[in-house]
Amino acid sequence: MSEAEVKNDKGFWRRLKAGLGKTRSQLATGVGNLLLGEREISEDVLDDLETSLLLTDVGVSTTKEVMDALRLRVSRKELNNTAALHGALAKLLKELLAPLVRPFEIRKDRPFIIFFVGVNGVGKTTTIGKLARRLTAEGLSVLLAAGDTFRAAAVEQLKVWGERNEIPVIAQASGADSASVVFDAIKAAQARKVDVVLADTAGRLQDKTNLMEELKKIHRVVNRFDANAPHEVILVLDAGIGQNAISQAKAFIEAVDVSGFVLTKLDGSAKAGVIFAIAAELKKMGLTKPVYFIGVGERVEDLRPFDAGDFVDALLANE
Ligand SMILES: Nc1nc2c(ncn2[C@@H]2O[C@H](COP(=O)(O)OP(=O)(O)OP(=O)(O)O)[C@@H](O)[C@H]2O)c(=O)[nH]1
Ligand SMILES: [Mg+2]
Fold it and tell me: What gap in Å lies between CA 130 and CA 154, rounded to an integer?
């Protein structure tokens, strides 16, 4: 690692820890107990830990799974003090998140077409802006498709991100057919030899059925253009809603072929534990889908590739 990389890494670690601050302090009652040096593991310590996991929305079944595993090891005298328990907890939590880790990659297809889906206000448009910046920094050319035609403000918001990053935005008047906007954008990207199309979609329509039908329609239109497209369908979830994110994820997975997730607003919420519930739910559904990025703030640099190790370490960090 170069000096600049080390510095950037340290900055990121600080931001991740700060971003997860609310969840971290929620967990602190339970985990704090584990961090106070090497003490004996009492039933109180285990109970506090269990309560803390539940309060951060890790979920009932995952919390039980974790606590059962830890209690078993305590009863077998494999974990002799709170420091060992802390280490075992971190390892277990990292294992639970491991299936969610897959680096986000722009594969060979051109243009590489990515849809962003999710209910209103979760952070789709903001995530597109942040990701656009990241991709252009990597030397890729990017074009934005204002597929959320339901609200006039949505188009404007995307245009602001486009201007800020000097990235073209393909839009039509609000109320236009969003499939046709996305299709136009793809044709433009092809003509201009643009690498990546990031397509925004509406989060709110008259009702949920309409929303899902519209997403399916965009999907079909794009698929006709390129049988492999869309190459990614990213579901954006707001960590602040905790366990409700699970039902949203299920609804979108059923309707459109979600290929991965972005979990936003981890900074504003004490419920970052929901990521464990997401992992558990996917496992139950027999699906493997990555969390590509996490959002820990509103600035461009607050969209970070998801790393299970860093995430758990930041969550359990002392201070
Ligand atoms: N604190 C914090 N705020 C975020 C994050 N990501 C997005 N936001 C904010 O959440 C709000 C909603 O974000 P949008 O990107 O407009 O959400 P959207 O999904 O496009 O919403 P609709 O267009 O209404 O469907 C904005 O104020 C964003 O700045 C994050 O990681 N942390
Ligand atoms: Mg939006």
Answer: 16
